[in-house]
Amino acid sequence: MAKAPVLTPRADDFPRWYQDLITKAELADNGPVRGTMVIRPYGYGLWERMQHDMDVRIKETGTQNAYFPLLIPQSYLTREAEHVEGFTPELAVVTHGGGKELEEPVVIRPTSETIVNEYFSKWVQSYRDLPLLINQWANVVRWELRPRLFLRTSEFLWQEGHTAHATYEEARDFAARIHRHVYGSFLRDLLAMDFVLGRKTAGERFAGAINTLTLEGMMGDGKALQLGTSHELGQNFAEAFGTRYLSRDGEQELVWQTSWGSTTRMIGALVMMHGDDNGLRLPPRLAPVQAVVLAVKDDEAVLAKAREIGERLTAAGVRVQVDDRTETPFGRRAVDWELKGVPVRVEIGPRDLENGTAMLVRRIAGGKQPVALDALTALLPAVLEEDQELLLTQARARRESRTSDVADVGEAVEAAVAGGWARLPWAVLGAAGEARLAEHGVTVRCLVAEDGAVPDADDAPGNVAVVARAY
Amino acid sequence: MAKAPVLTPRADDFPRWYQDLITKAELADNGPVRGTMVIRPYGYGLWERMQHDMDVRIKETGTQNAYFPLLIPQSYLTREAEHVEGFTPELAVVTHGGGKELEEPVVIRPTSETIVNEYFSKWVQSYRDLPLLINQWANVVRWELRPRLFLRTSEFLWQEGHTAHATYEEARDFAARIHRHVYGSFLRDLLAMDFVLGRKTAGERFAGAINTLTLEGMMGDGKALQLGTSHELGQNFAEAFGTRYLSRDGEQELVWQTSWGSTTRMIGALVMMHGDDNGLRLPPRLAPVQAVVLAVKDDEAVLAKAREIGERLTAAGVRVQVDDRTETPFGRRAVDWELKGVPVRVEIGPRDLENGTAMLVRRIAGGKQPVALDALTALLPAVLEEDQELLLTQARARRESRTSDVADVGEAVEAAVAGGWARLPWAVLGAAGEARLAEHGVTVRCLVAEDGAVPDADDAPGNVAVVARAY
């Protein structure tokens, strides 16, 4: 008789598999207020490691961290016309504070462009103050009617960058630099994620932007997920808030701006891009625990050896946890580590000890093989790097195999509904075609140039639309 | 003619001096919603360094980080009677979300004991799940009628720890451990802060606690500031939320809990404990920039030497910034670094270069002296450690010189109003005396045992009340 699976198989019900995994791997729980979430220590540990790595990359661009208030006067949002239209339906409004009704209601930030500009307009006086490069790590609230843990939550954690520059070109180049060299490198090098880097169509842009760059990843079910965005804001917010500087020529000029964000949604992406029917599969460079050393049995020699191996691997720079909870059945512990996606298990029992070996179980490459105890320390770092590569290769192979070139809107819808991505010329699709896609719950994820580069304009000749269903 | 001071002198108007310093050193600005604040990069850099250091200390206790939602159903707060009474006047209430009026209003967390217990009651099943040690870094909102930057803000950043234990003793010991070995060591070793560690009276306890430990520091004007608190919650929240565990004996038992927090208020404390009439004085271990190398003049040889010194000091492990902005007058830059509290300035001009020396200017010990360029690298780390010590010594000396032993309530009020701390037997003061103090805006900051230890009970024989005006 086959064992009952720990998770609903992906092929049976992908959303259910996702929810099962999040719960059973103890990544997060639903919060009491609809759409909010409790990020549990194992899930938060992933976020901490993401934060740390991305924070270093952000600072390398010369950007400094700061903190702007959670609460924004409602009137600020109305100053930029597209912005207020885009965000009003999602706002959480505070009407009472300190036991009294407020004179002007305040909103919880859905994003901070407006309040940031209120201060940029004070801090920026002359060209010497530019570029002004600020980032904040914060929570934001966007009321969510169909919430899903990590992917769409009413409150999420993120970083939001806000910059002001003297020229259009500088702002454009900075947004592109963040996109490719902060987000792109981060997702690929740390999270082993595959993505397409492109430009949003006018209909899909951030509310108030003149251009939005996006990174789109393919999930295990073939749907797309936006992994991060970087916006050129032009002078829209500068105009609304009077963010001006005295140029070298002695003229008062509006600044050019960017904003860019990445969120706890990336944890959801990690699950859906790399997870399998047995649970999470963590990229070794991200994994808080890269290798777990499991004592199979409550045996003194085994426990001592497990701890010794743990120490030797730690000394070799591997992040190790020794699992000596032998009161819990071995099988249950092994399944749990598999669920949690720890890249490598080193299992050691009395028989292994006799043979001078341990069983090496690889979560990503799969398979198990006995390895001489003396060889472990030298072997593991290489195995972890190999598995890091393999995750990326697998994700890329899936996207490539499930992406097809199509000739018209009908075929694009068909491909997307079947769980894949379609590519077709933007000149064929256009805004009218985009509206037809929408009737089937299909969207243009991004536009890319013929050679795969990011186009300078929606209507640049040869632009290809990447079309899919999306989270 | 004397130069106009950069800041209002402390002796003239201490609150004004504080506000001037915060603004001119670019630590923070007032936010648009009353009581909120914008933490600017220089101020946030201090917070980041504090966070990092404290996070390491917290994790060393076995505590893990997690994240609970910002929004809490109003009904949660009402479950613990003292808690709701304590926090209701300070709540920010969200009544509308996603364009609709909410069925049940939700509040922005003023602190998270209630929502944490909602989840602890699910996560804790058996004695094997204990102790459960959780911390979160988050923002909280407590509506503030008389706000002051960093000290009392409607939104502030903090860490809040929440733990559950099997026994009263374990919880008590854990709260004490956090207090002494996390907060106490942090404040003393990193921030060079002097404090008295004691126990709050029943009247000053956290709403819902059975005991509150506090660290009280004396500010530059002799007033007290609470620097961090650690609470024994007993079983109050466990009872309200049904947080029970199956004991080894097979009984369902309520857990014993602690909570503990420290906030961005510590930045205000840093300013008021160490600042002088010229600005901030940063403890070298905390300072994001420990030494600034100032090129006095726009001279190629000077600039080259300044950069070379910068590189050598960096290589020696000093956090250095080279100030080569020679288009700004030297005097203005020097005043600005003084304002920002950078511990050491290394000034180099053409004449210094001729002499093979640089001028070493010490912000904390004071004074300036020429130092041979070759000697700088060896000298600076020792100077920084000496200055770290000196800040602590100065703070302690001030508290000791401005604390007096008094015999009755009248004398205690007199000492506090004159800008000092008074010590008198709790047996003499008592709750009735506490009420009389309150008429003069004076409070019992904490109770300490005769030998300086933390008392086990308010009424332990020999308890001394430390009495002061406070922020």
Automatic annotation (TrEMBL), chains A, B:
Similarity annotation: Belongs to the class-II aminoacyl-tRNA synthetase family. ProS type 3 subfamily.
Signal peptide (UniProt feature, chain positions): none
Major localization class: cytoplasm
Chain coiled-coil ranges: none
UniProt comment concerning the protein's domains: Consists of three domains: the N-terminal catalytic domain, the anticodon-binding domain and the C-terminal extension.
Known partners and oligomeric status: Homodimer.
Organism: Streptomyces flavofungini
Enzyme Commission numbers on file: 6.1.1.15
Record-linked NCBIfam families: proS_fam_I
Family matches, as InterPro entries: aa-tRNA-synt_IIb (IPR002314), aa-tRNA-synth_II (IPR006195), aa-tRNA-synth_II/BPL/LPL (IPR045864), Anticodon-bd (IPR004154), Anticodon-bd_dom_sf (IPR036621), Pro-tRNA-ligase_IIa (IPR002316), Pro-tRNA-ligase_IIa_arc-type (IPR004499), ProRS_core_arch_euk (IPR033721)
PANTHER family referenced in this protein's UniProt entry, alphabetically: PROLINE--TRNA LIGASE, CHLOROPLASTIC_MITOCHONDRIAL, PROLYL-TRNA SYNTHETASE
Protein name (database record): Proline--tRNA ligase
GO molecular function per UniProt: proline-tRNA ligase activity
Location in or out of the cell: Cytoplasm
The entry's keywords: Aminoacyl-tRNA synthetase, ATP-binding, Cytoplasm, Ligase, Nucleotide-binding, Protein biosynthesis
